[in-house]
Specification:
With about 190 residues, the protein is an all-beta fold. It has no helices and 16 strands. The mean pLDDT is about 85.
């Protein structure tokens, strides 16, 4: 059992028969010295993110989660197909609804982690930092650079993120997949 005092970022618990991972956690003190924990949780099966308040009397069962290395193969309609990295014949698919946040970062043959719960691959986990080629970038407007402005660009996967104005079409950039933010320019073509 996981007690209230053990709840922190990265801990996985079972709540309402679903595995959840704590994404953010911060303690707050209420009147008369009682503390509560405000947390953002991600349902590892559905991908849903919710906010919850935990009290000192709360206890949870630990979610037995394992991970396997897998590769993204392709998408067809609303299904995304993957295979185990060391055994390409073992394929599985995940519906678009479960991975809607990760879709903008999926490119063929990228290695990622499959999340296994009750002997079933229920979701995926991307590497925290990935590199992408910028396919479309509007020109930076002179004068905006002084204010440290940003612009939206389209990545090779079709995803859109905000980047500094000096990024151009063809640049290779590093992106944090958790925060969906630009990290740095890796190289220029």
């Amino acid at each position: 059992m996981i007690s209230y005092s053990q709840l922190e970022k990265g801990v996985r618990i079972i709540m309402d028969k679903y595995p959840y991972e704590i994404m953010e956690a911060s303690s707050m003190f209420k009147g008369r010295g009682q503390s509560v924990l405000q947390a953002r949780l991600k349902n590892l099966i559905t991908g849903e993110i919710l906010s919850k308040t935990f009290h000192s009397s709360d206890n949870f069962e630990e979610a037995e989660i394992s991970k396997i290395t897998c590769k993204f193969l392709y998408s067809h309609r609303d299904d995304y197909f993957f295979s185990e990295a060391d055994n390409p014949s073992k394929r599985f698919n995940i519906e678009k609804e479960k991975i809607k946040e990760e879709i903008i970062f999926l490119k063929p043959n990228i290695e990622l982690e499959g999340i296994v719960f009750n002997d079933e691959i229920v979701n995926i986990s991307l590497p925290i930092k990935m590199t992408f080629e910028v396919k479309t970038a509007p020109p930076g407007i002179i004068g905006d650079r002084a204010q440290g402005g940003t612009k939206n660009v389209i990545l090779e996967t079709g995803g859109e993120i905000a980047v500094p104005l000096f990024i151009e079409e063809g640049d290779i950039i590093e992106v944090n997949t958790e925060s969906k933010e630009y990290v740095r320019r890796v190289e220029k073509k």
